[in-house]
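Weekly structure sync, notes
Attendees: PL (lead), two postdocs, one rotation student
Agenda item 3: pending single-chain targets
PL asked that the sequence for the first pending target be pasted directly into the notes so everyone works from the same version. It is reproduced below exactly as submitted, 137 residues in total.
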Amino acid sequence: MRFMERDQEEDTRIDLTPLVDTVFLLLIFFMLASSFVIVPGIKVELPQAVHERILREKQEIRITITRDNRIYVGRNRVDLDSLGKIFRERAKKAPSTLVVINADSRALHGRVVEVMDLAKTAGLNNLAIATRPKRKR
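Predicted structure, written out during the meeting:
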């Protein structure tokens, strides 16, 4: 009986298939997870505008006005009196603070004007209204 001789040199390749599978699964995970990253806060449908300018400043106050005209600072619901107090305190600390108003497109225009007036009265003159870009047709 004759035995087959084994080559003295064995194949020393590293199998990369498990590594490629793992990297592919991580890629899929991060792609899916990134779609869950949304802007935290209250859901509003911003009005559309042709020109969009993204503002990101360290000293800003984000005011949200919902379609039923509720006012939020961050995630905290406030009334107009409390909002005026918040504006006055911020104006004392940093008068150049930017007030960003995220108003739902169906919110009353009068409510948006009231918030803007409170900010101006408190001494916060830098105002911005958040919009979303208009879709090209």
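Discussion points:
- The chain has a mean pLDDT of 80.
- The helical segments are 17-35, 80-93, 109-122.
Action: rotation student to compare against the earlier draft before next sync.
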